[in-house]
């Protein structure tokens, strides 16, 4: 079993978690061009390496951030969403 | 005969047949460079050489021929999709497969089994009906079976699964399986006979772009240039596209599968259930080939997980309770390049000499003949043929998707 450490619930089986994708910069739908908007919707960095993602512990519905290596399948760090300041969003 | 036994029995100098040529030296320039030596790359090279007399072609493969998803797939070949644009494309591929052993003079062990897709709910029964009718409209053989007909077709199937009884099924009689390795070997061998060069252990590390063109390809064995460059790298599509500055609507997920030890033949058709996330076929050797849904998160790693194997086994035993005693013989995973609409990306990229064959996800083995056939034509004529025009990269910005999610999940 692979274990993920939830910032709220501690170490839990990874089957209790859901991955919700890379932490993106949001774009403003009212000012974005059609091309920018479709890129935002569909395109993905699909990085082979370290990524920062949204994860959710589904039984408690606790959302947090995780850093993960997509080549080695290692979870490098998990942390609660900072109250203010940047989340390390990528484009 | 006795003579041969003496001669070769005591000597190691067998008259070995060298079918796939040894990797030659890299030349400085090729008319076409294909990145990726899987089924798709080999099929493209074959069709370029055979139909379009384009023979100054190199396939660059970072590992060994057909060692990617081509070696890892469960070989379901079918055309029972939902959208007419896909049905027509996959139907062409099915036809090419039917005569492929003859075409390549190489035994594909092509075996027409038929595929039975099960419904356990009214909603799925309706979507199977839609797929059956859409297929029939395009001239493909599909029919809806009731419980009695399912029992007659697969007597060993458990129709009364607790909580989710089987209600109906989509029967696709021309669906088939084939020997995956033979497909890529056959295409590569016949392509090389026509002058194509296969470079194994040759990894593309980067590319230089100037004036909207790829001008240089860097590999671990030296640099080269090409008139046209095509990427056919499945799970690595985003990584290679990034080398030329392109971002794709692709996410790479592992897909796992497994086989049991061999037992005597009892299962002729392939059976699949989307609700159970499981599909099963019996190979010519008697092994049960069991596959299902993708892994839960993106990964460039072919490790297997206990959770997924457990899930597959649990579903398989629901369908065929008597296989509970069988042992798992082998298990593996491939890295699949998933698109938002479960359809491929074929055609020109925004760069003028760079082409894409990507986004084949969990469904691209069946497309191996047709993707090579049509892409070769597109490259030779510098004009995309009608059959693959629905699948360009820019369909996403036009919101003109070809949605095959329902016809792909857990059936591949
Ligand atoms: C478990 C599993 C089951 C499947 N079941 C089915 C099925 O039943 N039916 C179906 O139709 N499809 C199925 N698929 C999907 C199918 O296997 C693939 O879509 C198809 O094989 C893709 O072929 P390809 O030639 O494009 O890719 P591959 O065979 O993966 O070839 C790509 C090659 O590119 C090489 N490469 C990558 N990067 C580089 C680089 N930088 N330089 C040089 N070479 C590089 C790789 O080494 C690899 O050999 C399944 C896939 C999996 C994993």
From TrEMBL, chain A:
It comes from the Bacteria. Its EC number is 1.5.3.1. Keywords: Oxidoreductase. Signal peptide: none annotated. Transmembrane segments: none annotated. It holds the Pfam family SoxD. It is an enzyme of class 1 (oxidoreductase). InterPro entries: SoxD, SoxD_sf. One of its GO terms (molecular function) is sarcosine oxidase activity. This is Sarcosine oxidase subunit delta. The lineage of its organism: Bacteria, Pseudomonadati, Pseudomonadota, Alphaproteobacteria, Hyphomicrobiales.
TrEMBL record, chain B:
Its EC number is 1.5.3.1. It comes from the Bacteria. GO terms for molecular function: sarcosine oxidase activity. Transmembrane segments: none annotated. Residues 32-76 form the Rhodanese domain. Keywords: Oxidoreductase. The keyword Hydrolase does not apply. PANTHER family: FAD-DEPENDENT OXIDOREDUCTASE DOMAIN-CONTAINING PROTEIN 1, SARCOSINE DEHYDROGENASE-RELATED. This is Sarcosine oxidase subunit beta. It comes from Sinorhizobium kostiense.
